[in-house]
Structure formats: C-alpha cells, structure tokens
C-alpha cells in the first residue's frame, strides 16, 4: 500500500496525463456496459434501469423465437464474408499490379484515385448508389432502356442487393486496403526478385510465386481481423444505402440495423439490449477463435 | 546445322516472352485505369448533375453529361440558412473534436507507452477490451440521453469520439520506436513528465500527430451516427444528417421551422449541390493530406 502511494507520488505527473483518457474510457466505454442489464429487465423509461422489473430471459426468448433472428444473423455473417473475400481479392489485384508499374507519376496517380472513395461518408455513397440504381432517373435503368432492355426496379428487388453492396464495398475500401498491402510489398526484400529475374522468371511468375506468398501473413491478418468482427454489421454502410426500405430487409438487414430500429423506432430498449448482448457474446467468441488461429499461424500478431 | 536452329528458336522464344510481357503490362495498366475511372465516375456524376437544370434531370435522369446547365440549385441552397448552420455545426465539431481528441489521445498513449508506468499492461487491457466486447448501443444511448443529458446538444456530436483506442495504439507504437534515452536524459535533468512530453516528445511526434489529427478530422466530418441518434433539432444538424434528411424523402419545407429559409419542395439538384458542398472540403484537402494517411495506415497496420 505504501509502495503504491509512493509510486503514485513519484509519477504523479505521468499518471495525471492519462486522466482525461481514463475518464473518457470509464464514461463512454465502461458505464454503458450497465445497459446490458436491460437485456434481463422489462425496461420502463420512467423507472430507470434499476427500478424496472426483472424479466429473466424473456427478452432473449422473444428474440430467438421471432422470425427475425436467423435471417438477421445470417445476413450479417454472409454480407461480411462477401465483403472480406472480395475486398481482399480486389485489393490484392490492385496492390500487385501497382507494384509492377515503373512510371512513378502513373503509379502515384492511380494510388490517389483508388484511395479517394475511402474519404467519403456512407451517406454520400448511399446517394451515389441511388443515382446509379434508382428506378426512374437512375443511370443504369436509362442505359438499359437505351439498349432496348426493360428497366429493373432495383430498390424493390431484394436478391440483387448483396451483390450491389459488395460492389459498393469494393469501390469504397479496396483502394484503401491495397495501400496497406502495397506498403507491405515495398517492405519485401528486392533480393528475391533479382534472383528470380536471373533465373529467367517472367513478371507473371514473379507475381505468383514471390509477391503473393510473401504477402501471405499480411493477408491472413487482415482477413482474420475481418473475421473477428464478423458479427458486427457495418451500420453506417447498410443504413446509409438501404435506410428504412423494408422491401430490402430480407437480404440486407443486419444485427446492427435491426437493434437500431428496435431502439429508435420501436423504443424497445430491453429487446434492443438483448440483441446487442447476443451480438457482443457472439463477437467475443469470434475474437477468441480469431486469436486462437492467429496464435497458431503468427504468434507475434496475436491480440492476447 | 544444329546451332542456328537452336538460337533462332530461343530467339523466337525470347521474342514471344517479350510480347507476352508487354501484353501483361498493357493488361495491368488497363485494369488499373478502368478501376480508377470507376472510382471517379460517381464523383463526376454528383458534380456535373448538381449543375444540371431540373428539366434536364426530369428528362434524362442523372446523365454523364446533362443537356442543360444551371446554377439554380446552388443559388437556392445558398439563399437558405440551413446549409450555413449545418456547415457551422460540422466545422466546429470537427475542429474541436480533432484538437481535443488528438491532445487526449497523445497524452494517454504516452502514459501507455512509458516504461515508468507500472500499470501499462492493465491500462492497455482496459483500453482494448471495449474494442473487443462492444459496450452496447442501449447503454451508450441511455448514457448520453438520460445521464449526461446531451440530447440535442452540440456536445453529443463531439464527446463520444474524443478518444479512439485504435488511434491510441498507433501513437503507442510510434512512441515505442523512439529511443528511450530521450526521456531518460531529461529525467536525470529533473524535468517532470509534462516538460518532457511538450519539450521533447511532442516536437518529434509531429508526423504522427498530423496523421492521427487527419483521421480524427475525417471521422468527425463524415459522421452521422451520433447526429442520427441524438440530434432532432435542425439548428444542430451537421452536414451529413442534413443530407440524410434530404434523401429520406423528407420535405425540405420541414426544415423551415426554426427560421430556415428552404421553402420550395426538394429538387434533385439541391440534394446534389448539398452533396458537393459536403464533400468539397475533403476533395480539396485530399491532394495535400493524402500522404499523411498513407503514412498512418502503414504505421498502424504493419506493426499492429
């Protein structure tokens, strides 16, 4: 106890520097954890968290017996899986291709342009999507009509949206990911390439047999980071693009948009808490699994 | 007789290899150019159609080149008060949030990275634990609305993002890369940690401060999650929420209450002009700040 006090006295200036950060963490990260209690209560706003009655597991029973939990969970997993795979595939293509470009200005220009969509908010991206796909004024439908095809009512056709969302995702993030990968490529030793050239390896062979295998650790880490968050839907993206268009919910509604609507539109705090707690637990399992896998492949990159 | 045949065969082979190499480079370049054009195209559509006359939009929809141009949308938008109000909200939240966020995060991370801190491990764990087990939407909502009473206040747009653990860890990995002698020699000279931080550490940290500052600025500028949750009053609409309200079929006239002068029903052009004004600062700043983002990404992701 004395040592503790002495340490605090000696390092008081140092510890003081962390105080704003600690206050922030306590207020915005730890106090909200109390909200999880509501998952087990029948929350009435007038009586507060502590005054409301306990409801046992009723909220969970209600959620799991509803028609929604399976599709919402599956959508979250399925959309995230699509995003992870295709984003990475395109980012790799871009990075490996950019690495082959010798013209500095060309390389730099392309890099800047493909990175640009990362800087735009999902609201704006949602509007861009609307401009391309909307029924009456959309660019795509006008193009279809011009070549003599029928216009498609995209915003009433749920099955195409996983594809559209994936394309939008590639558009927005592949460039950003490719920059991370490109930095990793730049860190690779040039010796490999020199000896490969001496052995007469073509550029394609160099890409396939040198760059790709050497990038494997980076790829694995980036993919697994995505897998660790696979239960967390991208609220900003989905809500920014789909919004409250119920017709598209069967294929696009994810846990995050669902719990948001439960909270903000239905005002059902307890139900929303139950969903969020379910998500947190599943997310925790995913992260622990993720960490276990990373520990095996690349112990230096593990989280704990 | 053998020799010439062999040499001509290998010559042909080399020629063919040279051809396929060229083909490959062509293919790579066309892929990169095509992807870049796809990245730029939606931006182009936004900008060019914001100058399109309403009747052109009505006939052709959103076109790559509208048939008639006008400045009417911008004139209409800039006559109203709302766009200026929203600009003020977004700009002030971004400026304040970025400045405070960088300061808090830089100091907190300095304590996390400092070997004199005996609770480093514990503090790091407390920092990243909320990243793994989400603190939950409902608790967060209740915290801001019911306990802090920040609903419909400017503070609700600033406070919740003040410290991002991910950015803190980027700072930490940067501080760790500095030679510890910097700190030690100053300690021997009897300087306290505040002096060490501001006199020695901060000046050498300028690049990472710039990078993290830009990340914060981008996060604040593009955010609409906080305003979606907490802002109902149009006097406090940030740009992104204003856009969302315009998009979600809400009548412009409903922005009227509170003395804002957008009186006509929403024209497509007005929405497009709002988008352009919203992303304008990002697009103009982009060429200048892009390299800092690239630096930050490589710093944060390669080292983990």
Features:
heterodimer; A: 304 residues; mainly alpha; MetI-like fold; two-stranded antiparallel sheet; 15 helices; 2 strands; 70% helix; globular; B: 304 residues; 13 helices
Written description of the protein model:
The complex is a heterodimer of chains A (304) and B (304). Chain A is built from 15 helices and 2 strands. Chain A has one domain: MetI-like (MetI-like fold, Orthogonal Bundle), CATH 1.10.3720. In chain A, helix 5 packs antiparallel against helix 11, helix 7 (122-133) packs parallel to helix 12 (235-241) and helix 11 packs across helix 15. Chain A has a two-stranded antiparallel ribbon. The two termini of chain A are 29 Å apart. With 304 residues, chain A is mainly alpha-helical. With 304 residues, chain B is an all-alpha fold. The longest helix of chain B has 49 residues, at 2-50. Chain B is globular and about 75 Å long. Classes of the chains: A mainly alpha (304), B mainly alpha (304). At the A-B interface, helix 2, helix 5, helix 6, helix 7 and helix 8 of A face helix 1, helix 4, helix 5, helix 6 and helix 9 of B.
Question: What coarse outline of chain B follows from CA principal-axis ratios?
Answer: globular
| Regions with little confidence, pLDDT below 50 for 5+ residues of chain A | none
Oligomer: heterodimer
Share of residues in helices of chain B: over 70%
Q: Helicity level of chain A, as a percent range? A: over 70%
Structural class category of chain B? mainly alpha
SS elements, strand count of chain B: 0
* CATH superfamily label of chain A: MetI-like
